[in-house]
Structure formats: C-alpha cells, structure tokens
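It is worth pausing here to work through a concrete case rather than discussing structure prediction in the abstract. The textbook approach is simple: state the sequence, then state the predicted structure, then interpret. We follow exactly that order.
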Amino acid sequence: MFSALRMLFVFLLIGVPAAVIGIPWSMLRGNIRFMYRWAMVAMRMGVRAGGIRVRVEGLENIPPGESCIFLSNHVSNLDPPILLPAIPGMTSVFLKKSLTKLPLLGTAMRMAKYVPVSRGNSRREAGQSVAVASDALRSGMHIFIFPEGTRSPDGNLLPFKKGAFFLAADTLAPMVPIVISGTAQMMRKGSLKIFPGKAVVRFLPVLRPENFESREELMEAVRLEMQAALAEA
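Step two, the predicted structure:
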C-alpha cells in the first residue's frame, strides 16, 4: 500500500499545480504543450515513486513526423501512466465522457483534445468521437486507444472494439500496436495495492490502413501481431 500512497502523493504534488497553473497559462497562450509536458513528468515521477521500473522497446518502429494511432493491450490501472509518457510527441486518448466534466481535470482534458466516449454506443455518438479524434490527428497529435475497451481479467486479449479501425479508415493514419507486460502483477484488478516491479512496453511494427482491403482485415492483423508479441512476453 505504501507504493500506491507514494505514487498518489507525487501525482497530487505535481499534478495539481500543473492544472492550477497550466490551464490558465495554456488558455492565454492558446497552446497546451507546456501543460502536457508537465503532466507527463508527473506520470513518470509518480510511477517511479511507486517502485516501478519501465523498459521501452521498439521506438524505431514509430514512423517519424507522422500522427499515428497507438493501440495497446490493457491489464492494469497502471497501464495509462506508464504508456502515455512512453509515446513520443503529444497524444490524445479515448476516455469516458463523464471524466471531461470533472473540475480542472476535465478542462485540461478538453484542451488536450481528449476524445470523449459515451457508454451508449449510439451511431451518432460514435461518429462524433471519430470526428474529434480525426481533428486531433490533423492537428499533429497522436491518438492512443485500448481497443479492448476494458481491462483483461487474465491477460488474454478481449474482443476489439471497432472505433479505432473506423478512425484508421477515415484518416489513413498509421497504426502502431503496443504490448505492455508486468503491470498485471504489480496492480491487480479490483485492488488498490501496488507491488514494485518492472514493466516492459514494446512498440510493434507499423500497420498502414491503405495496405488492407477492409477494416476487419486491418483489425485482425493488429490482433494477430499483438497476440504473437504477448506470447513472446
């Protein structure tokens, strides 16, 4: 439990000033880069304070100078604060629509072009999410998605949601699969305890939507690549 408390303390110590100072500063400048960097520092330092070491592999697989769609498996609540700082550049994410209504944090998320997703899963709401994500990609940001939509209880990949692949077909943005390992043992589903250890983040070879005949074919290719990498891990 002490590891979790240390992590939370660092997140609050750095994250709250980042919001209080960073949001007005970013609004005045019309640029969130300063606030984003501060948030990534908070995540890195919080993870380190929790006794978690992170090894990143495969950065050479990320195409330089292109806005990409990153997709990762999801096994722990530790995944987001480990994965986001590992992605070069600025990254937007899909998240629950309700989170954008939180004080300060919600404002920061909207400024960072985070993509709100409703649990209703209506066609209209899905189209709105894709439109927001497309705008973020055009602005030069990356998009990060957990294609399973929720954490896996046993480490095996759950069925993929189709949103990321609609976005890829719409924008032709390259897709970079990621596999993360080690976090399931450090923070188990349903528990607040954190056990120190090592997480490995591995970026896999890029997949380009224009090389596939359908969204389904692209989705299957991403899934197979992630499954093979998880088997090795």
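Step three, interpretation. Residues 2-29 form the longest helix (28 residues). The chain has one domain: 53-232.
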